[in-house]
Amino acid sequence: MTSTRAVDAPPDFLAFLDRVGTALDAMFAGDPEPYTALWADRDDVTLYGAWGPIEQGLPALARTFRWVASRFSEGSVEQELAVVAVSGDLACTVGFERGVVRVDGGPLAPMVLRVTHGFRRIDGAWSLTHRHADFPPRDQRVG
Q1: Which range of residues forms the domain containing residue 14?
Q2: What's the per-residue H, E or C state across 74-109?
Q3: Is 88 exposed, middle or buried (0-12, 13-18, 19+ CB in 10 A)?
């Protein structure tokens, strides 16, 4: 599921964001395939993962997505998008993924990730091209 503020984006891109949300739910429940299928099959796709992996190229990303999904079970997530920007054949989103997940067989627990996704329209269809996610650090400006 995706929640956004008012978005001035093409309908085909908004539909693709819905597909990303559904695929992320599958990932957090242990199935990486729907999310992997949304990525461009190119050497320049990139991942800066929340658990440390930095990967380039779809084969490397797919291996990492399988590892990530193997850690999850019984999870669900909602995208909270603060920024959705589309210009021609390029787009990006910035926001959070918030959910309740079971990691490595542990208890169900809340999880929050800060996430930036990059997208590209290739041959008329949107694809994911970049993901940078991390666990939000404590704001050090606060006492």
Answers
A1: 2-134
A2: EEEEEEEEEEEEEECCEEEEEEEEEEEEEECCCCCE
A3: exposed
Q: What is the pLDDT of residues 38-88, one digit of tens each?
A: 999 999 999 999 999 999 999 999 999 999 999 999 999 999 999 999 999
Strand order in the sheet with 109-122: 2-4, 72-87, 90-103, 109-122, 125-134, 46-48, 54-56
For residue 97, give the CATH number of its domain: 3.10.450.50
**Residue 141 falls inside a structural domain:** no
Determine contact, residues 38/128, Cβ cutoff 8 Å: yes
* Structural domains in the chain (count): 1
Q: Is residue 60 part of a domain?
A: yes
pTM: 0.91
